[in-house]
Amino acid sequence: MTAEHFSVWAPHRDRVRLTIGPTTHAMERDDHGWWHAEIRGAGDGTDYAFLLDDDETPLPDPRSRWQPAGVHGPSRRYDHRAFAWSDAAWTGRQLAGGVIYELHIGTFTEQGTFDAALDRLDHLVDLGVDFVEVLPVNAFDGTAGWGYDGVLWGAVHDPYGGPDAFKRFVDACHARGLAVLLDVVYNHLGPSGAYLDRFGPYFAGSTIWGPALNLDGPDSDEVRRYVIDNALSWLRDYHLDGLRLDAVHALVDRGATHLLEELADEVDALAAGLRRPLHLIAESDLNDPKLVTSRDAGGYGLAAQWCDDLHHALHVALTGETDGYYRDFGRPDALPDTLRRAFFHAGTWSSFRRRTHGRPIDPRRHSGHRFLCYLQNHDQIGNRAQGDRMTATIPAARMLCGAAIVLCSPYTPMLFMGEEWAASSPWQFFASFTDPDLATAVRDGRRKEFAEHGWGEAEVPDPMDPATVTRSTLPWSELNDPAHRTVYETYRALIALRRAHPDLADPRLDRFHVDTHDACLVLHRGDRRVVVNLGGASATIPLDRPPGEPLLASTEPEVTGTHVTLPPDTFAVF
């Protein structure tokens, strides 16, 4: 019987003990604050926890790989080598030219599990997307939630199926040619089960969402390593193709080498060893091209970043909403200007922030594929009071005009699950904390937040009500409805067109031009032209040459010489 090694970092504790069932084992401290124990017979599937100093409440392993009893229970040993992968021939997907599909495992299917999601992967293949981006699957308190309140970053949420189920999901995606990205949260921990600070100086300050990590203070080297090792494990042990890094603007790191730069360097090294591309995609509110500038040129070297300015400009142009952070995007030139340069706020005044914000990109140096463009995502839907999708406000035909812009742009398109058929289901904020006081605080806080914007208490869904999860679950049966099917076929055709005509996927921003004619746009994409009428009446749009027959159109356009006439809320690709 071989001895199994257990270890945990607790540099300022005088005693650490390991518990396995009713038995307690002493651990030995090394010179770096790590505690170790060798235990015979404690192999795969063994439940264990740690006792710190004289505490008698066992705590889960901060580096736990499996939490079948929830975030307050013991950790379980899990051997990554035991899974039988079938994707040895997988070589990955490059981001340039790709299309991303964002989904939440808990509401993607009625069952809300990885195994149930397998039955819907062929739908994604038929749609034509290249990447599946999965919202966080790390362990969080309760059964249902968005995943951004995770506290054990290396353990797959057990109600979704646990670690083996996630690997089956990734393996099945790769078998179908789909790359998999995972949303990870390193800027804060959730409010329930965040025991890291009991082990060591993991925390330094807080964000609006919860405690923040100590990335640059005393003993921060091991904390940084905690983040980097977690990221590398997802990519290596779960065969993932990349990570989406949540709200990196909330990472406080004043060191000479920012955590993001260090992480990108380590991930690139891993990619070289695995011989397939690995992508780090940041969610950032900074509008700073440094994130996606190569390290050779003094940047952090991330693969891409979400671009909310593109979303905001599209949202305002399509819906007419100008409240809150949409206010600045109400200018007539906001959409064409943002399409041309990715950032609307680029060293310019932001009325929402009440300060100058952002920095311009250089279209000769920065490829458009490094900026994600989307009409909707989990935040922009879920953080609305009622979680309503765009088609709850505007006709599907108008949304399809936005889809044509996104999918024929030089940016990397991203869809949110159900968008491709104009799903009627909202996507609302929900959680299921087991602590009743915390549940009440979250419920009351949500209602108070929206009461300040004029919403009545009854109008804000209760995030703790299981019915909120049910409402937010995709209604797949709608694909049988002719109106929803028409939307789906249009999305499918746009993605296929992007693949068939390389000009429509060309990410070079210095070769991309946008013309405006009142409320109409013309996107110049090499030899192709994308014409969109967002006005309230039929319009005749001049082009720089006779367009020929349309490759795809939402209605039959009238072509006379170099002029195209389109009804309102329609598009055509020539």
UniProtKB/TrEMBL annotation:
Keyword match Hydrolase: yes
Coiled coil: none
Catalysis performed (reactions): hydrolysis of (1->4)-alpha-D-glucosidic linkage in 4-alpha-D-[(1->4)-alpha-D-glucanosyl]n trehalose to yield trehalose and (1->4)-alpha-D-glucan
Top-level class of the enzyme under EC nomenclature: hydrolase
Subcellular location(s) of the protein: Cytoplasm
Pathway annotation from the record: Glycan biosynthesis; trehalose biosynthesis
SMART domains given in the database record: Aamy (SM00642)
Top-level lineage group: Bacteria
Major localisation: cytoplasm
InterPro entries per record: DUF3459 (IPR022567), GH (IPR017853), GH13_cat_dom (IPR006047), Ig-like_fold (IPR013783), Ig_E-set (IPR014756), Trehalose_TreZ (IPR012768), Trehalose_TreZ_E-set_sf (IPR044901)
Domain Glycosyl hydrolase family 13 catalytic: 81-498
Pfam family, one: Alpha-amylase
Sorted UniProt keywords: Carbohydrate metabolism, Cytoplasm, Glycosidase, Hydrolase
Family: Belongs to the glycosyl hydrolase 13 family.
Cited NCBIfam families: trehalose_TreZ
Protein name as annotated: Malto-oligosyltrehalose trehalohydrolase
Organism of origin: Actinophytocola gossypii
Source lineage: Bacteria, Bacillati, Actinomycetota, Actinomycetes, Pseudonocardiales
